[in-house]
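Progress narrative, Year 2. Work on AAAD deacetylase from Uria aalge advanced from sequence curation to structure prediction during this period.
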Amino acid sequence: VEMGAKLLCLFLASALVAYYIYTPLPEDVEEPWKVMLITASFRALGHLAEAADRLGMMHYMDALMLLTTAEYVAPTSDENVTVTDTEFSNVAVRLYLPRRASDGLRRAVIYFHGGGWCVGDAGMKSYDRLTRWTSNMLNAVVVSVNYRLAPKYRFPVQFEDVYSVTKFFLQSSVLSQYGVDPDRICVAGDSAGGNLAAAVAQQLLKDSEVKTKLKVQALVYPALQTLDLNLPSYRENEYKPILPKLLMVKFWSEYFTSDSPLREAMASNRHVPVESSHLFQFVNWSNLLPEELKKDHVYTSPTYGSSELAQKYPGFLDTRAAPLLASDAQLRGLPLTYILTCEHDVLRDDGVMYAERLRAAGVPVTHDHAKDAFHGAIMFVSSPAELAVGHRLLNRYIEWLNDNL
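Result:
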């Protein structure tokens, strides 16, 4: 009997592990077993965070932050780059200064990390690797910003932090202190960081105090709108690796509040009040997506929600949180733009629609679409979770910056 019980336990444990690790993946994804293992670990962390939250032990996002903490590396200089943690305008930044000589003034990249405005850190191994590499490959000064995070700090704190760092750095006295060419500066970021970079670039156009213009903005699978969380990309990638739809909804809603009514309304896509209906023209995918991404999806008119939510949390209708809601006039004059999107990503259509709207507004855009990639791929460039696709996307981003900045 004991033998039978042990076998049953073993069988159940194996079934559970198999269920956990096996994720149906699109056929074109490289290194499927690696991707499955990565997905399984993220899913396990999500389940633990959910349990901790329900038991009242810690907030869901604080539990996710444990991954950020585990990945943290101290600022370490090497033979190519001097790395220090400092503050610009009272906001923590990690600064990368190249060591090799420069013929003239250097380029600069101001980088905002991803993590749904709730998690992540400039000092995570993956981000440290990305920004260090950027600094070394481009012989550029890189400022990686540690903006404050939700749930402790809500919108617009994250935006204000990255904006005040950018504004501080763009002062001519600061640029000359670091030997930076005022005509060769870029803001960049991935995911929520891409959202912040797009918002900063828009805000700078309106800011008469800032004399230095950005040369480029680089947005890596950015989140750009809060209005329609049922785009074709949200439908097709609802359960895809790293960023399933419900996690993105959680990130979006936590940016504004921990109150569940907003999250629930966003999850069912009925959070926008009828008085904001004019904004839907800016995210109408039936007009803005190419045919191959529309597939068999049918556009339906929005279902409106209560005005109360928008009055209580006006942030989700603010262009600083949702840059895709900017009018055509507000997009004109934006710098040369790089947008990377991934096929298997709920945020895919945000980036595609922004590329389309920027082009229509006369902004030069390079839109790089990775058909075999998923959200967050660029993060997986350091072991143990090293993915070939991560290296490929990172190299494309660096090459584009090298050619255009």
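The chain has 16 helices and eight strands. The CA atoms of residues 324 and 354 lie 6 Å apart.
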